[in-house]
Amino acid sequence: MTKADIINEIAKSTGIEKLTVQKTVEAFMENLKTSMIKGNNVYLRGFGSFIVKKRAEKTARNISKNTTIIIPAHYIPAFKPAKSFVEEVSGHVIDDGKGNVFSK
Questions:
Q1: Within 1-104, where are the H helices?
Q2: Element spanning 52, H or E
Q3: What distance in Å separates the CA atoms of residue 66 and residue 83, rounded to the nearest whole number?
Q4: Helix crossing, 18-37 with 3-14: angle to 10°?
């Protein structure tokens, strides 16, 4: 599902015009990014948490040049779903064993 799909679904289910929904979704995403850039986590009860995680410094290999490089410590955005969200998704999604996922 893309951002456009989300906007269309919200507009259809609420009756709010698409442009208003688009502005709202984009404002939410911008506020989420701004908050995380400042180092703040965002908690949405029943949905999940958008958190800033610290990655430790590590050593890696550049196999094309056969050299060792140091990747410095850095921060990344991450999403941790709420327990109720995980349970709801896992109860409604099935895998056919071939990598295809379907809704029950």
A1: 3-14, 18-37, 83-90
A2: strand 48-55
A3: 44
A4: 130
